[in-house]
Amino acid sequence: MRILISNDDGFFAEGINTLAQVLSDIADVFVAAPDRNRSGASNSLTLENPLRIREEKPQWISVQGTPTDCVHVALNEWLEIPPDMVITGINHGANLGDDVVYSGTVAAAMEAHFLGIPAIAVSLVGHTHFDTAAQVVKNLVLKLQQVPLSPQHILNVNVPDVPLDAIQALTVTRLGSRHHTEAMVKTKDPRGQDIYWFGPLGQCRDDAEDTDFHAIANLNVSITPIMVDLTAYNQLSLLKQWVSGQETE
Questions:
Q1: How far apart are CA 108 and CA 148, in angstroms?
Q2: Residue environment code for 104-142, b if the CB has 16+ CB neighbours within 10 A, otherwise e
Q3: So what's the pLDDT on residue 151?
Q4: Using an 8 Å Cβ cutoff, are 242 and 236 in contact?
Q5: SS3 of residue 113 by DSSP
Q6: Residue 64 in 3-state DSSP?
């Protein structure tokens, strides 16, 4: 089995290195990752500048670009034979609820999906037990060899930051949601000019029992199928009436 791994934390990050090491037991692993931390890059592509690629070691390249750039160049230029699967992560920190809109980790998995390759995005809700998340992914890959992914979805996987034997279960979830990000932090640079930092993530707003937030809070692995089609199908009929000028109740 051939697996391409990417991330948004950079090729040097502990998460991607742990994942590549563990998956190398069951697959031929290739890594294409940003040359630096590109968290929060979402689905952005580098269009105004050329992409520079550097071979870091055999079957590992760093890309001077976004996570989406990495997967795009790997599948369209670097790899002569397409991989069987693309796995992005292990992200340093959660990608729960609204986070998926901004996440470079999830975006890289979406790019693989757009290019016809099954994909999983995986995140550790913390910064310690990357070995736990890597073993969870390894088990998922072995299972997916028997029962393949639906071509219509990617999987967004979040793993509690605990030892493997403390994980309670694998849970299929929907995305929860957060409150808005907290206020920005205003300070000054050494020359006295105003600068601004994004505030911390908002607190959880929707953590019902079937959500990814609830799963993590109960030490369960959260597995959420994500649809790339953003169409609000339940609004099509109402919008058609509105466009045509018909009365709506």
A1: 20
A2: bbbbbbbbbbeeebbbbbbbbbbeebbbbbbbbbbebbe
A3: 77
A4: no
A5: helix
A6: coil
Place of tokens 């809700």: 125
77 pLDDT above the threshold of 80: yes
Spatial separation of the C-alpha atoms in residues 71 and 18, rounded to whole Å: 19
104: part of which helix (H) or strand (E)?
helix 104-114
- The sheet that has 60-63: what strands, in order across it? 53-57, 60-63, 28-34, 2-6, 85-92, 119-125, 153-160, 221-227, 170-172
pLDDT at residue 179 above 80? no
H or E, element range at 134: helix 130-146
- CB-based contact 125:96 (threshold 8 Å): yes
> Could you give the angle at which helices 130-146 and 14-23 cross, rounded to 10 degrees?
40
> Does residue 28 contact residue 54 with C-beta atoms inside 8 Å?
no
* Contact yes or no for 121/37 (Cβ under 8 A): no
- Mean pLDDT across the stretch 64-86? 96
**Residues of the chain with pLDDT > 90: what percent?**
74
Integer Cα distance of 197 and 185 in angstroms: 5
* Residue 32 contacts residue 4 (beta carbons within 8 Å): yes
Q: Token pair of 160, please?
A: 């509690």
- Which residues are paired to 6 by β-bridges? 88
Question: What is the C-alpha to C-alpha distance for residues 29 and 151, in angstroms, rounded to an integer?
Answer: 22
Beta bridge partner(s), residue 29? 3
Q: Which two tokens stand for residue 163?
A: 């030892």
- Per the CB < 8 A criterion, the answer to whether 6 and 60 are in contact is no
